[in-house]
Amino acid sequence: MSKLSEYWDAVYSCMGCGDCGYAIHSAIGKFKSCPIKEVHESPFEVYFARGKMRLAKGILDGRLPLSKELAEIIYQCTECGACHDTCHQTHNPNINLFVTRWIDHVEVWEALRQDLVKEGFAPLDQHARILKSMNDQSRLNPYERELSEKKEAISNLSGFVAEGTSEIGFFAGCTQSLMYSETLQKLGKIIEKSGIKVCKLPNEYCCGSIALRIGDMETATHLMEQNIKYFQDLGIKRIITACAGCYRTLKKDYPKYSDKELPEIINITEFLEELIENQKIQFNSSEPISVTYHDPCHLGRHMEIYDPPRNVIKAVPGVSLIEMKRNRNNAWCCGAGGGLKSQFPEMAVDIAKDRISEAIETQSSLLVTSCPFCERNLTDAISQDAEIKVIDIIDFIYSRI
Ligand code: SF4
Ligand code: SF4
Fold first, then answer.
1. What would the pLDDT profile of 360-381 be if each residue is shown by its tens digit?
2. Mean per-residue pLDDT of the chain
3. Which residue lies with its CA nearest to atom 1 of ligand 2?
4. Ordered structural domains, the chain, with CATH
5. How many CB atoms lie within 10 A of CB 251?
6. Of the bound ligands, which one is closest to the alpha carbon of residue 103?
7. Does the beta carbon of 160 sit less than 6 angstroms from any atom of ligand 2?
8. Per-residue confidence at 93, pLDDT binned at 50, 70, 90?
9. Residue 48 CB–ligand 2 contact under 6 Å
10. What are the pLDDT digits (tens) for 112-149?
C-alpha cells in the first residue's frame, strides 16, 4: 500500500478553491501563500498546493503513474506549510462535508515523497548526494564532512558539562556544529553564566530531518533509533536544541515513528525565555537598536513557537522589535526548507530576497532568526551593501550581555 493512500481523505478534501495560491494578503497586497508559485518562472498549477493535490488525486485514482518528471515537481516545495495555514479545509470547523477531513498539506507532500523514494523515482541527484553522506559511516551528516569534525566541534564547546553528567542535554545538530560552531560557543557562555548544567552530546547522530523531508524513511528511521538509544543510555530527560529543523524533528516526528519514551524537547528560544524569566541572564548593554524577527517555518507554522523568540528579543534593554508585514503564521518562508536549497538553490535564494526586502522595509538594523538554515539562506540573499544584517538569536543575546 502506498503511503499516500493513508491520506486519501485529506487529498480528497481539497475543493480546488485555489486560496493556497491566490489568496491576497491584505497587509502587502500580494498573493499570500506559496513561495514556489511566486518565484517560479512558469507558475503553473502544479507549483502550488491545489495543483499538487490534483496530482495526488490522479495518483490515488491510478490515472497518473509515479515518475521522475513528477518527482521534479513534487520536490519544488519548501514544505513551509503556508498552504496549510491558508486552506479553509484546515481551519474552518464549520466545513465538515462527508468527504471532508482536515488536510495537513505537509504530511501529504511527505507521504508522496516517501512513495517516490520507495519506487525509485527519487531522490533527485543533489538529495542523493546528501543521503549518501548521511549513510556513510565516516560522515553521518548531510554536508559530506567527516564525523570526527562534528564530534570535535561538540566536544570543544565550553560552558556545557561533560556527556552523562546532567539530565539536560544539548542537541547541537549537524548544521550548527559544522557551520555555526561560534554561535554554539556563545551559547555555552550564556549557559555557563546562568549556572544551569547542560551536557554536551558529542555522540549524537544527525536528527534525520533532511532524510525525512526527502522521504528516505530507511535513513531517517536508522538515525532516529540511534539517537533515542543514545538519549536513553545517558538518562537524558530534557533536550535543548537551537536548530529549528532538529527541534521539529525531535519533537514532532520522533514520537510518530517511535513508541519509546522520549526526553522533553525544548527549543532554544523557550530556554532563553526561561533563563530571562528566572533572571539568569543579565544584560550589559541598553544601546537603542531596532530589530525585526523572521519566523522559521519549522518553528512557527510547524510548531507554533511564536511568542518565545519575541519575548526574548523584547526583554533586551534598548531593543525595539519591529514586525515585518508578514509575521507569525503569515511569515514568508526563507526558501531553504524541504530540500529546496540543495536541489533548487536559485529558487531558494529568490524566495529569500523577497523576505529580505520586507525586512529592509522595517528599517531595522538586524534581522534576527532562530534557525541555521534560515540564517544561511537569508544571508545568501542579502546584498553586500545592505544596511540590515542577519543574525541568530543566540548571537544577538550574546552581543548584549
Ligand atoms: S488545498 Fe485548500 S486552499 Fe488549496 S485548493 Fe485545496 S481546498 Fe483550496
Ligand atoms: S508547503 Fe509551502 S512551498 Fe509547498 S506547496 Fe505549500 S505553500 Fe507552497
1. 999 999 999 999 999 999 999 9
2. 94
3. 79
4. 4-122 (no CATH), 147-274 (3.40.50), 283-399 (3.40.50)
5. 20
6. 1
7. no
8. low
9. yes
10. 999 999 999 999 999 999 999 999 999 999 999 999 99
Q: Which ligand is nearest to the CA of 92?
A: 1
Confirm if 220 and 250 have CB atoms less than 8 A apart: no
Q: Which residue has the cell 565550553?
A: 158
Query: How far are the Cα atoms of 18, 53, 103, 107, 316 from residue 10, in angstroms, in the given order?
Result: 16, 9, 5, 9, 43
Residue with cell string 565516516:
138
How do residues 296-353 score in pLDDT, each as one tens digit? 999 999 999 999 999 999 999 999 999 999 999 999 999 999 999 999 999 999 999 9
Assign residue 79 a region: left if phi > 0, alpha if psi is -120 to 50, beta otherwise?
left
Which residue's CA lies nearest to atom 8 of ligand 2?
Answer: 34
Asked whether the beta carbons of 48 and 82 are under 8 A apart, the reply is no
70 phi, psi to nearest 5 deg = -65, -40
The more confident residue out of 234 and 23 is 234
**Which residues have CB under 6 Å of ligand 1?**
14-20, 49-50, 53, 83, 86-87, 89
Which residue shows C-alpha cell 504530511?
107
How many Cβ atoms are within 10 Å of 46's Cβ, its own excluded? 21
Which one has a higher pLDDT value, 116 or 100? 116
Centre of ligand 1 to C-alpha 49, Å, is 7
The answer, yes or no, to whether any atom of ligand 2 lies below 6 A from the CB of 36, is yes
Residue nearest atom 3 of ligand 1, based on CA coordinates: 87
Which atom of ligand 2 lies nearest, measured to the CA of 333? 2
Grade residue 97 by pLDDT with cuts at 50, 70 and 90: low
Say whether 340 sits in a helix, a strand or coil.
helix
CA distance 58 to 191: 52
pTM above 0.90, yes or no: yes
